Amino acid sequence: KPVYILNGPNLNLLGQRQPEIYGHETLADVESMCRRAAAGLGLDIRFHQSNAEHQIIDWIHEARQGADGIIINPAALTHTSVAILDALNACDCPVLEVHISNVHRREAFRHHSYVSLRADGVIAGCGTQGYVLALERLATLLGRQHS
Ligand code: DQA
């Protein structure tokens, strides 16, 4: 089964929005980087972004049945969404939370994550490389070669 990589609000603007915080790479760049890394790890991915909370929840419901793992950057919904936490709590597969920026070095409201209550691992402040690190971790958790 594939691994779902889900991205929340405003990440469609990656590369344009606050590049001093999020860098110059676009989400399309992140997707190709993930596709390359996943291929090397023998993982198949579905890569999605939405600005709508309900869409993210629908993809998590889809992943609940159809995915081996979930990598999620819920963006601002990290700090607000009990609904995304509840959806992830309905899933049995490994869940990894990714933040491009180091949220702990930023405003206090970014220090709390609802999603972390469910996540098996959290990667923050490693830039877009965090997605690749999450894929490698997932491969380990799924018993694929990489460690
Ligand atoms: C983010 C951090 C969040 O606090 C912020 O709302 C985002 C992106 C990150 O990847 O660093 O939109 O999840």
From TrEMBL:
E.C. numbers: 4.2.1.10
Keywords assigned by UniProt, alphabetized: Amino-acid biosynthesis, Aromatic amino acid biosynthesis, Lyase
Residues that, per the record, bind substrate: 73, 79, 86, 100-101, 110
InterPro entries the UniProt entry points to: DHquinase_II (IPR001874), DHquinase_II_CS (IPR018509), DHquinase_II_sf (IPR036441)
Keyword Kinase: no
GO-annotated biological processes: amino acid biosynthetic process; aromatic amino acid family biosynthetic process; chorismate biosynthetic process; quinate catabolic process
Feature type site, description Transition state stabilizer: 17
Pathway in which the depicted protein is active: Metabolic intermediate biosynthesis; chorismate biosynthesis; chorismate from D-erythrose 4-phosphate and phosphoenolpyruvate: step 3/7
Reactions catalysed, as given in the entry: 3-dehydroquinate = 3-dehydroshikimate + H2O
UniProt enzyme class: lyase
Gene3D superfamilies, sorted: Dehydroquinase, class II (3.40.50.9100)
Subunit composition and interactions: Homododecamer.
Family of this protein: Belongs to the type-II 3-dehydroquinase family.
NCBIfam families listed in its UniProt record: aroQ, PRK05395.1-2, PRK05395.1-3, PRK05395.1-4
Function: Catalyzes a trans-dehydration via an enolate intermediate.
Protein name according to UniProt: 3-dehydroquinate dehydratase
Lineage, top ranks: Bacteria, Pseudomonadati, Pseudomonadota, Alphaproteobacteria, Hyphomicrobiales
